[in-house]
Amino acid sequence: MSVSNTNTCRTPDMSLIRSVGVTEIPAFFFIIFTFLDRDDSQLIEKIVEDVGKKSSRMHPIELEGLNEIDENKGDTESLLKKYQRIGIWGMGGIGKTTIARQMFAKHFAQYESACFLENACEEVDKFKQMQVRSNLLSELLNRQITPTEHRSKSIRSRLTSTKVFIVLDDVDNAYILDYLCEPLGGLGPQSRLIITTRDKHILSGTVDEIYEVTKWKFEESQKLFCLGAFKQTYPEEGYKGFSKIAIECAGGVPLALKVLGLHFKKREYEFWESELNYMEKRGESLGEIQQVLKVSYNRLPLQQKEMFLDVAFFFKDENKDFVIRILDACGFSAIGGIESLKDKALITISKTNRIQMHDLLQQLAFDIVRIGPKKQSPFRDKEVSDVLKSKKGNDAVRGIIFDLSQKVNLHIQANTFNEMTYLRFLKLYVPMGKEKSTKLYPPDQGIMPFSDELRYLEWSEYPFKSLPHPFCAEYLVEIHLPHSNIEHIWEGNQIRLRVSAETINIRECKKLIKLLDLSRAFKLKCLYLSGCQSLCEIKPHIFSKDTIVTVLLDGCKNLQSLISRDHLRSLEEIDVRGCCRLKEFSVSSDSIERLDLTNTGIDKLNPSIGRMCKLVRLNLEGLLLDNLPNEFSDLGSLTELCLSNCKNLQLLPELPPHLKVFHAENCTSLVTTSTLKTFSEKMNGKEIYISYKNCTSLDRPSSIDRNLEDGILTMKHAAFHNILVRNNSSQTGKYEYNSVQFCLPFPGRRVPREFQHDIKKSCITIELRKLPYLLGFIFTVVVSPSSDENQDAEIRCQCYSKVGRWKVGNASNFKWNHKNTTKLKSDHVFVWYDPYLSDTILRSGHTAFSFDFSITGGNNNRSLSMPMKECGICPIYLSEFHMLSTTLNLDEDTQLNICEAVKSESKLSRRYDEVCSYFEPSDTCDWELALKKICHCSHDCDCDCDCDRGCLKGKKLSLPFIVFLSLHKLLIV
After folding, report:
1. Which domain holds residue 618?
2. How many Å apart are CA 233 and CA 231, to the nearest integer?
3. From CA 354, how far away is CA 343, in angstroms rounded?
4. Among 162, 498, 581, 943, whose CB has the most other CB atoms within 10 angstroms?
5. Does the residue 72 lie in any domain?
């Protein structure tokens, strides 16, 4: 499903604008014309509001002050004007990210779309690479992009025609950089891509110019240091000498300057003297920069020192709330401690609520542990193998983290972990996208119990049948044992006291037979059991807890029932995809937003499904349902519904009222459907998609014809409602338009009769003589079956001007990529309304157009041998409003709002009074009076147009108005 989403704004008739001597129109010009019928105070108020919004976005508060300091600013501004792709290269802590942030903060508001991808390589390493690239493209194109679309021609086309600003921050991996940049190969000439890295080599061939960030000179260093120490850009009286010494110690590195400045903030003279002496005498083995950074660490309270080390070793880039839970369980005052580390610039919190730490500070933590006393030390990777083998210093170990994808041997003794009495954090993991390569040598008899101090346990491919006996789970916050050999976690009598775990993750444990007593898990929120193929039963008490939030059971092939005695409040997500033997499902909750029952054995839905008041997405694909319960229509929040491959389904009841996306592919027994008018009832930024592909038993004419009429009616309502969208939009040209796509079998039929222009070719040429009365266009194509697989097929419509054959806008696309409809089994009609292409056509100034239709598919967008029987175009006119409002029973307020919005737009039309006659014939036109306020014009008309009110041909804008426009443009640009 794909509709071109180019941001456009409805602009006045360009010929009218050119006639008054204006050749270049700024984007904000629409404000003037929107408010022509209002007094000057409203016009000025609107412009002030617009300027305020845009100027407030220029410099985010976190960059306050830095824009005045950075000596590199002029150079980078020059590069931004000359080059499209810029690499920013330099050592860690030198300020690459700061420069990129400054450039982004200053310029992103001037672009149609923008994205700042922080720590690009770390994010990609932590999550699936495809998902990160999908997030990047989704941010740029302002709609959800799936991995199957990454290489599509339509994505590249959209990126080429959209002015975008992209920053990929902290890239240190050439492969990941190539992967992220692959879809960005066709950026338009006005777009900009900035990449920051420490490795100059990976920028080769990717960027047009490389900018090296050097250490700051003394003047700029002093300003940044003094901002932290004195909240001004120069030293206070009596501190100039001390400041100079401190600045020299920082070595021109912005991170060190910032940390050191905050360290001396509001400190007395004696403190400065003592600290500077200390810096000169200590830290010889840490290097000059780390010596500076260590000053802040040394002055931390003991508990915060431990928290700093824990973050550096275990929690960098982890979710802040997760870190606080673990540290709280360790006895720390976590919230206050994290805030204190943040205030001292030792950590930062990202926009996604992840704790981040600069690499220099992390290296400082590693060095502190390496050269410090071996007391309660954390260990990583290389040290772990030696510690486990020799068992030296076991009583000092408080944390272990080890990457099992490394090719090393790891020996574990039965009493290895039992002797680590301070062990709080154990993580033996396989990173996402990698495989286990470590050769593990566990004891045959199993291991002895872990320390009662353990708060976090993660062990991928845990080799034993159960956790050691006895097992203390009273203080454990999370348990992760994915891909393990366990047959049961623990026996009921093994648990001492209660279970404090909030998360239990034992996914892909193929030998797990049953999940025993979790009744004492009084804090349990997340239970991950995906892929536990031998699991037959889930005790109902799991769903009696008022804490449970997520239960994942997808791929549990032997699970037969899932029963909840109560209607739940807290459960937000449950996944049972692929539980092919699951017959009984009676779980319901007020909080569930997504429910996936794909390919289960369920043949009847429990009526309790109607109580899921927050359910947004429901997937019933492949179920053996004969019908849907009457309560189904009570799902008032449901926006996406999939019934594909429900081959026993014969009748569709009334659908929920707020659906946006509806898949019913391959429902081969479906005969009768309900009305689709429900799709027209709520129009608030919807991208509506309706598909009955390969529903070959649909009754004709009752179902096919009625659904087609309802679909076209929905598209016309969307066109009228888009007038409200434009009228109410708070941001110039950034419209959340309503768009509609619709497909159903159409055996032996021609283009629907509603389409005035149809031809048995792939190109249509039309002349539009009533442009002032047009709202948009509906496109249609009738497609016949073919032998081609059409997994990535899309129907494209490209518009050209008849004279000169200039391309008008981007191609409009109807894309189907549903995995179940790689082949059509009969003739199908595809109908869609694209508001963005419609807008471009209506404001192009042309009156004659050619529309070229084609079908392409695959990664290289090759032409497919799928014959188009016919294609057609249906204009949408203002005169249809009365019919539409009557058919849909629109309420009086909606009718009035649409009428007022139409009038507001139509005041620019030279036939405004004729347009108004469709709504209120008694209204009079006052557009001329409004124009007189800003233009010198007379009533004499010396043009050859047929208007009866005169025109502005040959007239000039008044000097005050020209000055006003220039000033506004200067403020914005």
Report:
1. 605-663
2. 7
3. 16
4. 162
5. yes
Three-state SS at 758: strand
Residue owning tokens 């154990």: 426
204 contacts: CB under 8 Å, gap ≥ 6? none
Q: How many residues does the chain have?
A: 973
The domain boundary residue, chosen from 190, 212, 234: 212
In the Cβ-directed half-sphere of 789, how many Cα atoms lie within 13 Å?
8
What is the four-CA torsion angle of 622, 620, 530, 477, rounded to 10 degrees?
Answer: 180
Question: For residues 646 and 667, is the Cβ–Cβ distance under 8 A?
Answer: yes
Q: Which amino acid is at 429?
A: Y
Q: What does each C-alpha distance from 240 to 201, 233, 254, 601, 617 come to in angstroms?
A: 41, 12, 19, 78, 63
Q: CB-based contacts of 336: which residues, under 8 Å, 6+ apart?
A: none
**Residue 295's pLDDT is what?**
75
Q: Report whether 382 contacts 373 (CB < 8 A).
A: no
Per residue in 681-735, pLDDT tens?
Answer: 666 557 888 899 889 888 766 778 888 888 888 899 888 888 888 877 655 455 7
Token pair in block for residue 964: 């006003």
The answer on pLDDT for 483 being more than 80 is: yes
> What are 846's two structure tokens?
């042309």
Question: Which tokens hold the place of 61?
Answer: 């508060």
Phi, psi for residue 651 in degrees, rounded to 5: -140, 135
| Spatial distance between the Cα atoms of 400 and 223, rounded to a whole number of angstroms | 42
Confidence class for position 116, pLDDT limits 50, 70, 90: very high
Interval 344-387: pLDDT, tens: 878 889 888 999 988 778 888 988 887 766 544 566 666 677 77
pLDDT of residue 915: 42
DSSP labels, 772-797: GGEEEEEEEEEE---SS--TT-EEEE
- Tell me how many degrees the CA angle 442-446-452 measures, rounded to the nearest 5: 105
pLDDT for 557-592, tens place per residue?
999 999 888 888 889 889 999 999 999 998 989 899
Query: CA-CA distance, 623 to 643, in Å (whole number)?
Result: 8
Q: How far apart are the first and last CA of the chain?
A: 36
CA 514 to chain centre: 38
The pLDDT score that the predictor gives to residue 72 is 58
Q: Are 709 and 660 in contact (CB under 8 A)?
A: no
Residue 137 belongs to some domain of the structure: yes
- Which of 620, 636, 663 is at the close of a domain? 663
Question: How many domains does the chain fold into?
Answer: 2
Instruction: Considering only CA atoms, give the Rg of the chain.
Output: 33
Instruction: Please identify which residue in the block is written with the tokens 């960027």.
Output: 207
pLDDT band for 939, please (50, 70, 90 cuts): very low
Q: Are 303 and 337 in contact (CB under 8 A)?
A: yes
In a domain, 302, yes or no: no
Q: Residue 862: what pLDDT?
A: 60
pLDDT digits (tens, 9 = 90+) for 671-680: 888 777 767 6
Ramachandran angles phi, psi of 446, nearest 5°: 90, -175
**Taking the model in full, what pTM does it have?**
0.66
Tell which residue, 598, 574, 599, 577, has the closest CA to residue 587: 574
DSSP assignment letter at 200: G
H or E stretch including 95? none
Q: Using H for helix, E for strand and C for coil, what is the string for 128-193?
A: CHHHHHHHHHHHHHCCCCCHHHCCCHHHHHHHHHCCEEEEECCCCCHHHHHHHHHHHCCCCCCCEE
Q: What sign has the CA pseudo-torsion 696, 701, 702, 706?
A: positive
Q: Is residue 168 part of a domain?
A: yes
Q: Are 884 and 717 in contact (CB under 8 A)?
A: yes
Residue 946: is its pLDDT beyond 60?
no
Q: Are 212 and 79 in contact (CB under 8 A)?
A: no
Rounded Cα–Cα distance for residues 451 and 472 (Å): 8
* pLDDT of the residue at 770: 66
Q: CA-to-CA distance for 299 and 679, rounded, in angstroms? A: 63
CATH code of the domain in which 102 resides: 3.40.50.300
pLDDT of residue 959: 38
Bond prior to 468 in cis (omega within 30° of 0)? no
